[in-house]
Amino acid sequence: MSEDESEPSPGDAESTGQAESVAGRTEVWIEKYRPETLDEIKGHENIVPRLVSYVEQNDLPNLMFSGPAGTGKTTAAQAVARELYGEDWRENFLELNASDERGIDVVRDRIKNFARSSFGGYNYRIIFLDEADALTSDAQSALRRTMEQFSHNTRFILSCNYSSQIIDPIQSRCAVFRFTELSDDAVEAQVREIADAEGIEVTDDGVDALVYAAAGDMRKAINGLQAAAVMGDAVDEEGVFAITATARPEEVEEMVEKAIAGDFTAARATLDSLLTDRGLAGGDVIDQLHRSAWEFDLEELATVRLLERLGEVDYRITEGANERLQLEAMLASLALEE
Ligand SMILES: Nc1ncnc2c1ncn2[C@@H]1O[C@H](COP(=O)(O)OP(=O)(O)OP(=O)(O)O)[C@@H](O)[C@H]1O
Predict the structure, then answer these.
(1) In CATH, what class is 4-34+182-243?
(2) From the alpha carbon of 76, which atom of ligand 1 is closest?
């Protein structure tokens, strides 16, 4: 990682996920404050106690953690290993990324080497396979055979965004845990804890803005806090919205209201300022509209129409259509509505 990339950038979860501390630079907070034990994990009240009981009984099945980015899947897997193996956890926990550009054969070889290598007094070791849903069905079938081959001494924890992308024979061999977006309370609690530990002043509206911008993604919230704190002053709403490339909820609401009132030119100007001046991606605008739609001061029918259009635009953008054109067309269709 180059020096420039070591600064947290909240918009880019992937690059900051590979946190590294660079000599003389600030340590990346997502790593510094990554929970080490299961009970330090915020939220996931229906998952953590079940993992604790596996650890207490020292009886771990193969696990599958599915859910959105930044919600604690890797953290939970590492915490299980730390609790099972104490100081020896690193030797007994192999973390691999299934989308490793060197290919599935490399991943499979590393799994085999790890599972075959000598053991330090433990019944089994853990292989954590991140982005398991990046594997093709054929690669997953091969993985399933590997899981069976080493079932006597290895436990797998597979992490994925969508469990539906994992073949049934693997799912049925795992206890599946569905991680959801973290609650506002969970994100707020962690943000406040870190701010206290770092001696950073954060205003209440700054905390609210971080929680809103994160939308349940703890990595985003913590990176947002660290990036805003670099500015020096107290972390407030304005700083957070600027640094996280997030529109204020009022701005997206105003844009929709103008379109519905028939003032397409004004709605388009707001969209333009969000995309051009503020640097939001089209997908971010859609996500924010989707999250806030029911809080807008609109007739129910207008909200329903908005959601219908959003679904269409989201799909088209995912298929590669021009973002700005799609969003403008959505505003135009709202403006044309009787
Ligand atoms: N539930 C949580 N409680 C406290 N901190 C959390 C929680 N979830 C995530 N974090 C923080 O966010 C960072 C990223 O989380 P983690 O790597 O566990 O996400 P993930 O779900 O594995 O995401 P991805 O799917 O992108 O790999 C952690 O280092 C930790 O600092």
Answers:
(1) mainly alpha
(2) 18
